[in-house]
């Protein structure tokens, strides 16, 4: 890997600037032969702007931008036929992407492993994952503390085989040819771990049912 470029049109703190340049180089290596540097940098900086516009803490912005840009680029590769692995892709959507959709994401990743792809997003992303949701999932041996609320984008929705809505209503995007499911579940926002457990268990039941419908073996 070469040293990060020294020129950048963006006015950013030096540490943020450097971290974004490193992230850009890492993404270039990962998507070499799939996307050019201009596309990669455009997605990276757009992702950074999305988080910077609503973040009160800037320390982790480059990392969040890199992770989200990677997801968006993988989705775009699927949409454009540049990457086809045959794995079913499920997108879980709710309002804040802080509770229900994150628990569903955690269950699908845990139960399906590398046999399916799981993404999540929110119509009005929050600032952090619901602590009660994190604790409730930890009781099941699933760690979602490293996840982060994020929006959805067109390429992510278009790349999904199944879009599961959990309370985002009319804000949820609709694209022709997609399979849509609407899961009515209580919002865990502001609830205790005890109150979140029934929601967690119902999400697990539905995720297992969905995996069975998709023909994906689920872990016990």
TrEMBL record:
Residues 88-213 form the Phosphotyrosine protein phosphatase I domain. SMART domains: LMWPc. The keyword Magnesium does not apply. GO terms for biological process: response to arsenic-containing substance. Signal peptide: none annotated. InterPro entries: Phosphatase-like_N (IPR048716), Ptyr_pPase (IPR023485), Ptyr_pPase_sf (IPR036196). SUPFAM superfamilies: Phosphotyrosine protein phosphatases I. Keywords: Arsenical resistance. Pfam families: LMWPc, Phosphatase-like_N. CDD domains: LMWP_ArsC. It comes from the Bacteria. Coiled coil: none annotated. This is Protein-tyrosine-phosphatase. It comes from Herbihabitans rhizosphaerae.
